[in-house]
Backbone:
């Protein structure tokens, strides 16, 4: 049972890392188009923060 949980965590971590990378690319593009302090850029930045927080929580759990 422990192996299944560990595999699920591994898949979740990989998924989160992919989502974070995609969001970072989106944020860079939006910042180029609208400026680094635009509301859209800040919104994407906040979503990246949330993804990073989720990744951190998953990494902490055993």
Residues:
């Amino acid at each position: 049972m422990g192996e299944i949980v560990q595999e699920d965590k591994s898949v979740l971590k990989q998924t989160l890392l992919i989502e974070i990378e995609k969001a970072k690319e989106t944020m860079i593009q939006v910042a180029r188009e609208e400026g680094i302090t635009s509301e859209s850029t800040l919104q994407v930045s906040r979503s990246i923060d949330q993804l990073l927080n989720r990744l951190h929580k998953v990494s902490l759990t055993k």
Q: What stands out?
A: The CA atoms of residues 36 and 52 lie 20 Å apart.
